[in-house]
């Protein structure tokens, strides 16, 4: 890996200066500086009134709070995850989390004869609250595998147009604003949901990539309030080496594992599962995984629940998620 390439990737992935220290609960949420949504997806923005509890229906015990990965701001598909569900998502869960939820629903239905998500709304953070920004240039297109010569040629073209330190600086600025905006805004999203629905459910956090960072900031206060059903993270940059909640076994750890205390997962928070595919540059980071990500449009990091055959760990992740959905009660 060249020094310029290391500067672009390393600075953008291994640095997070001045990160926020905590999330805000619905009770004390204040209106943060909203980040404007892309006009192309305005029609899909969250309308919390859509989550009003239908007449005659009881409140859901659990709501899935979902946060997509970096730059997953196109191809948004509002989805009904169960034929019996009265709710449709806003689409901002993104493709990997959508595929996971569909996989978990289908697997639970096949094994139990019952729908997993019939009474579980999926509340995804939209672009106003969480822009999921990390604007780094892509060297490879989706499905493309570059050889070293072509990688060097394309990288040279990128750096000739924009110096490495400028790319890294812009990416870090956008990334920080994205995470800080979400940290300030999630409490308000939950407060609005609860006001519209008249319900006070537990929350099962579901985050992919940058979304895992955003939701980690919400863990402690939800746990302290007795309202954290669990947390499932795919490709988590905060993953520590040897984390006991990692379903795939030992990994080298995430690109942002050395972070300020305010970003570290709470030690007292139970029911947390991390899914890190081997060689995923965000949670199993080394120079080889970074290089693979650049030459193959993200490498393993982009593949969670989107490729066939399924990985050997997909079922275990879905089953644990299902256990937390069915095992939580908001009225003990």
TrEMBL record:
<protein>
    <recommendedName>
        <fullName>Cutinase</fullName>
    </recommendedName>
</protein>
<dbReference type="GO" id="GO:0016787">
    <property type="term" value="F:hydrolase activity"/>
</dbReference>
<dbReference type="InterPro" id="IPR029058">
    <property type="entry name" value="AB_hydrolase_fold"/>
</dbReference>
<keyword id="KW-0732">Signal</keyword>
<dbReference type="InterPro" id="IPR000675">
    <property type="entry name" value="Cutinase/axe"/>
</dbReference>
<keyword id="KW-0378">Hydrolase</keyword>
<feature type="signal peptide">
    <location>
        <begin position="1"/>
        <end position="24"/>
    </location>
</feature>
């Amino acid at each position: 890996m060249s020094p310029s390439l290391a500067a672009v990737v390393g600075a953008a992935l291994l640095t997070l200066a001045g990160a926020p220290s905590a999330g805000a609960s619905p009770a004390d949420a204040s209106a943060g500086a909203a980040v404007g949504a892309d006009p192309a997806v305005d029609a899909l923005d969250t309308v919390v009134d859509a989550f009003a509890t239908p007449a005659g229906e009881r409140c859901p015990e659990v709501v899935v709070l979902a946060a997509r990965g970096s730059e997953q701001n196109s191809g948004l598909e509002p989805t009904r995850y169960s034929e019996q569900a009265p709710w449709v998502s806003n689409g901002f869960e993104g493709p990997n989390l959508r595929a996971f939820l569909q996989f978990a629903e289908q697997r639970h239905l096949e094994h139990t004869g019952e729908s997993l998500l019939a009474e579980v709304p999926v509340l995804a953070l939209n672009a106003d609250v969480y822009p999921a920004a990390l604007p780094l240039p892509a060297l490879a297109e989706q499905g493309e595998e570059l050889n070293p010569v072509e990688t060097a040629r394309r990288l040279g073209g990128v750096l000739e147009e924009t110096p490495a330190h400028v790319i890294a600086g812009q990416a870090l600025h956008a990334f920080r604003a994205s995470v800080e905006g979400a940290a300030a805004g999630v409490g308000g999203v939950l407060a609005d949901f609860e006001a519209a629905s008249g319900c006070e459910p537990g929350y099962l956090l579901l985050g992919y990539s940058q979304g895992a960072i955003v939701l980690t900031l919400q863990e402690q206060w939800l746990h302290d309030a007795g309202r954290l059903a669990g947390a499932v993270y795919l490709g988590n940059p905060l993953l520590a080496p040897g984390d006991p909640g990692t379903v795939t076994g030992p990994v080298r750890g995430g690109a942002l594992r050395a972070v300020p205390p305010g970003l570290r997962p709470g030690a007292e928070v139970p029911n947390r599962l991390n899914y890190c595919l081997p060689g995923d540059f965000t949670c199993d980071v080394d120079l080889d995984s970074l290089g693979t990500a650049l030459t193959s449009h993200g490498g393993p990091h982009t593949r969670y629940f989107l490729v066939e055959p399924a990985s050997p760990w997909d079922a275990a992740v879905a089953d644990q998620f299902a256990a937390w959905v069915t095992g939580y009660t908001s009225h003990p």
